[in-house]
Specification:
The protein is mostly beta strands. It has a single domain, classed as Beta-galactosidase, Chain A, domain 5. Helix content is 6%, strand content 37%. It is built from two helices and 28 strands. The termini are far apart.
Length: 355
């Protein structure tokens, strides 16, 4: 009897230590604050101070959890994307001579893990404190037809120097691919009524990967010299976004992967975004080889977000650090394969300040 009581007491003690799953978690550090939901591992709100010290919510999203459900809005707002961020050509995946057909949900390709990707699933909270939140996605073998049972973690940490530090880890019991990113839609005006075309963008990239008219990478790595894709000197996002250029036409503006010149060194600046009106600056650091820049070309006024604001075209920009698109079918590019006994690790920092 005593043994049974001790066992029950131990179970109750473990239960007391486990975080209670909630719809929304608020974490704070320095001068910034984030609201995160385990549903899709999404950043719902991110409050940072402008040059006058006024805190502004600089990401798009929704007020209510149910608005993130795919039957209500099929959006990637703020999500921790997996298993594979970006596109895989026609959903075709081959590993060790075995072919897998993935869901085709975007111009015949598999985008962001398919229509039931991790952005539409509930992560489990494994650790929560005042400045960080660690989430687990336990993805079974055959999830969206991807091979291998994968356990993936994403940890959001706010730091005293006003950074959002995001770390990803994953392990698998069978060969698979993984490529995680965060899909925050940034609007440094802190006002979803305003577009981001006047914001200045810097990209530490001498090359990018062109796409065809289905947004699929062609396999080419092309120089940005003398093209609308040269952001090595900061310029407004809107300066060349509608230029007479085949790649601009294919992407409906900017929806391309840039090949970073940072050599996967997280101490080197990968990208920066600055809003003159608010003075808010975002600096991006990552150990990933690429960054997908999506300038909200398909926001079309059909989605109503926080505070009843209608999100119109180009009212946000996404800076998605990741492997290049379709790397499983382009073996010459940095690999996204994960094998048993190895650990996937990826690290990105969004650092905020004012000018």
């Amino acid at each position: 009897m005593k043994r049974i009581i001790l066992i029950i007491a131990g179970i109750l003690a473990l239960s007391a230590c486990a975080p209670q799953q909630k719809d929304f978690y608020t974490i704070k550090a320095g001068d910034i604050e984030a609201v995160i939901t385990p549903y899709g591992g999404r950043i719902v709100s991110l409050f940072v101070p402008d040059r006058d010290g006024v805190k502004r919510d600089i990401v798009l999203g929704f007020d209510k959890l149910e608005d993130y459900y795919p039957e209500n809005n099929q959006t990637d707002f703020g999500a921790a994307i997996g298993r594979y961020a970006n596109r895989i050509d026609h959903g075709h995946l081959e590993i060790d001579g075995v072919n897998y057909q993935l869901p085709q949900n975007n111009y015949g390709h598999c985008l962001h893990g398919g229509p039931e990707g991790w952005q539409y699933k509930l992560y489990k909270v494994v650790k929560a404190d005042k400045s960080s939140l660690k989430l687990l996605m336990d993805s079974p073998d055959g999830d969206a037809n991807f091979p291998g049972h994968v356990k993936a973690f994403v940890t959001y940490t706010l730091t005293p120097d006003n950074c959002v530090d995001i770390q990803y880890e994953a392990v698998t019991d069978a060969p698979t691919v993984i490529n995680m990113t965060n899909h925050a839609y940034f609007n440094l005006h802190g006002d979803g009524n305003k577009d981001i075309l006047d914001c200045e963008l810097y990209l530490n990239a001498s090359n990018y990967t062109p796409v065809d008219d289905t947004f699929m990478t062609t396999g080419e790595i092309a120089p940005v010299d003398d093209t609308p894709f040269d952001f090595r000197t900061p310029k407004p996002v809107g300066q060349d976004i509608d230029a007479d250029n085949e790649q601009i036409a294919n992407g409906h503006g900017y929806d391309h992967n840039w090949v970073l010149d940072t050599d996967r060194d997280i101490s080197r600046l990968a990208a920066a975004l600055y809003c003159e009106q608010t003075g808010i600056e975002l600096r991006v650091y990552t150990d990933e080889p690429g960054i997908q820049v999506y300038a909200g070309n398909f926001l079309d006024g059909t989605v109503t977000g926080k505070g009843g604001v209608v999100y119109n075209r180009r009212t946000a920009i996404c800076l998605e650090t990741q492997k290049y698109p379709d790397t499983p079918n382009k073996p010459e590019w940095p690999s996204a394969e994960l094998r048993p006994g190895d650990k996937y690790q990826s690290h990105t920092v969004f650092a905020f300040g004012v000018k």
